[in-house]
Design a protein that fits this description.
The protein is mainly α and 197 residues long. The protein has helices spanning 5-20, 26-43, 49-54, 106-121, 128-182, 190-194; strands at residues 69-76, 80-87, 93-99. It holds the Pfam family Rpr2.
Length: 197
């Protein structure tokens, strides 16, 4: 059946008001939601699934998941699941069928092909001669790496000292400029007067 615009506005108002009052005044919210369900069934209006899931048909409580209602999932067969909505105000539970996403069957075949390709392309195990050559390379590169890290450490220290000196020099220059600009006076600052002792 088609509904007239006033009924649609009334249902929207009841929906918004029941959600607004769900946490502050649950009993008024439940009354408004019950009225919403009554008017929709009286006028023959089908409510969306989201509205039906979030309002308990028994007591009219607006579901605030985790506070006054609970949702759990139960598996029914290979490709079906049931969502169970339980109202904790009245204890009524309602189940709704939910289709599961279908698995892709080709993923296992692709993984096995990939493993086969990796095992075919794997390098042969190293020999003793290869191991000796690698040890020599590692030792010579270790000495070069040590010298390089020492040079990096020294350059970092120099950069840090330049940065620290420049900051201290800027502060000194600023302090001297303030003293020079004050000209007369006693050479006291407000902080000098606040010191005790």
């Amino acid at each position: 059946m088609t509904s007239n615009p006033t009924t649609a506005l009334q249902l929207r108002h009841l929906w918004a008001a029941s959600h607004l009052l769900a946490t502050t005044s649950p009993s008024v919210s439940a009354h408004l939601a019950t009225r919403l369900l009554h008017i929709s069934s009286e006028k023959g209006i089908n409510l969306p699934d989201s509205v039906e899931r979030s309002v308990c048909n028994a007591c009219g409580t607006v579901a605030v998941w985790g506070i006054n209602s609970h949702v759990s999932k139960q598996r029914k067969g290979k490709d079906k699941a049931m969502m169970v909505f339980e109202c904790q105000m009245c204890g009524r539970s309602r189940a709704s069928a939910v289709p599961l996403a279908k698995r892709r069957r080709g993923s296992r075949a692709r993984k096995s092909k990939l493993k086969a390709a990796v095992t075919i392309a794997a390098p042969p195990p190293p020999t003793k001669a290869d191991a000796k050559a690698e040890v020599g390379v590692v030792q010579s590169s270790g000495k070069a790496a040590g010298a390089q890290s020492l040079a990096n450490a020294n350059s970092r220290k120099r950069a840090k000292s330049r940065k620290g000196n420049s900051l201290s020099e800027i502060l000194k220059a600023k302090k001297q400029q303030q003293q020079a600009s004050s000209g007369g006076g006693f050479g006291l600052d407000l902080m000098d007067l606040m010191k005790t002792g």
